[in-house]
Amino acid sequence: MNQQLQTSTVNTDHIRIFDTSLRDGEQSPGFTMNGPQKIAFAHALADLGVDVIEAGFPNSSPADFHAVHSIARDVRNASIAALARCHAGDIEACARALDGAAAPRIHTFISTSPLHRQFKLNMSREQVIEHAIMGVELARKHVDDVEFSAEDAFRTERDFLVEIFNAAIAAGATTLNVPDTVGYATPNEIRSLFEYLRANVAGAEGVVFSAHCHNDLGLAVANSLAAIEGGARQVECTINGIGERAGNAALEELVMALKVRGGWYNGSTRIHTPKLLDTSRLLSRITGIQVQRNKAIVGLNAFAHESGIHQHGMLKNRDTYEIMRPQDVGWPDSQLVLGRHSGRAAVADRLRALGYVLEDAQLDQVIAAAKALTQTQHVVSDTDLLRLVAGDHGDTGWRIATMSLIDEGQHTRAQVELSDPDNHRVMKEARGDGPIAALFAALARATGVDFELESYEVHSMGIGRDARGEANLSARIGGETYTGQGTSRDVLEASAIAWLDVANRLLRSYAMQRVAALA
Ligand code: KIV
Ligand code: ZN
Predict the structure, then answer these.
(1) In whole angstroms, what is the distance from residue 358 CA to residue 362 CA?
(2) ∠ CA 479-435-451 to the nearest 5 degrees?
(3) Residue 299 within a domain
(4) Is residue 123 part of a domain?
(5) pTM of this prediction?
(6) Structural domains counted in the chain
(7) Which residues contact 263 (CB under 8 A, 6 or more apart)?
(8) 109 lines ligand 1 (CB under 6 A)
(9) Residue 125: which domain range?
(10) Is residue 212 within 6 Å of ligand 1 at its C-beta?
(11) 253 and 161 within one domain
């Protein structure tokens, strides 16, 4: 190995986690946050243990300036970075916004690829280098910690990248960031680029090389890991992978890859991984955007097993189908989901955990009833199982007879007519800010049941005449998660059915508790 690399400061095994959820993430459609939300999220990132929080781009708006300023003053246990083009105005704004920070960093960037030089900047190579030097030198007048980024670095000529990085180091940059701005790279290429830069940039041993990968080809995490193999010691990422277009590398995936495959990467982070799930959920609550069910680490299915074969394996030894413990990333436990694909062993095991060891014949009956239930609902919860053991097959409950929604300008009025578990009709109405708020309020009035939603998603299934809306929602009540599902041609009706699914489960569980209390 090259002697220079062996002795370099970038050869330590600490991988710096630079979170840019509040900058690259926040600037993408649907993820805008207000000032107090940004401050709350910055605290969560610091508690999670990120090394650097990129808090915003102060010169882009007064609101961004104030958010960065408040975070710089409030959040003491992480380095706070602010973004600037290589423009004096941007850099001065960063310096003012970061005033009072415990560990301020100015992150200044300029595009370097031929495409960006010609069409975005209309600058020659020499002019780009001049701007870079000006930006880094000015930033260094204000702070000791200066990161320089060559935007679209991956599509930049290698000799020019070396030239501009040499100049940035000479001007005082302490971190050199190599963005794959358009998510075009593949892992082998990224690894080789980092190896090349570390071997050819003058003074490489005294700076930290950083990777900043976008996810246009779904390779952001793989590319960031390859950059680490090539010698990067900082990775830029976001919670839930939010960011421009297809997003940035997902922090939770990167961190867990480094932890689970520590032997391979020989690099570790300071992230308190049991906080990953809460941090992901905080971001979803703030932005109103949930991660997909099958999202690695933080998706609802990440530690859920439904197929009989997998459940059987899990019951014998969880290592058969799990490479990390759910608790390591903040989940209370794995979930053996009882659904259409579950087997006898899983149902028997779940019942045992609930305190029931059934005779074979009774177990057969419960399994048959559970399978029947999966015709109308996706999963069979503990509450469902308890009902089935008690002989209640779940065909009673509140049902929709009619519903209507009237737009009243500022509000929507919803009217629902339901049939109750004894087949009596109940009609109620309520107003809300929008159709869903009004509908759920009317349902709550009619049933006398109310709960706060934890998640609510609507998907369309099929196209044309077959199109259907599917609504999924969940509520956390008394430590248990109740999920509901509804399908209909009309998404509002699907939502109402899903809401009633939760309400019916809740009512049955109360009934079960009453029976248990009387016994
Ligand atoms: O993707 C990118 O190139 C960036 C830079 C500003 C670092 O976000
Ligand atoms: Zn970016």
Answers:
(1) 6
(2) 15
(3) no
(4) yes
(5) 0.78
(6) 3
(7) none
(8) yes
(9) 14-287
(10) yes
(11) yes
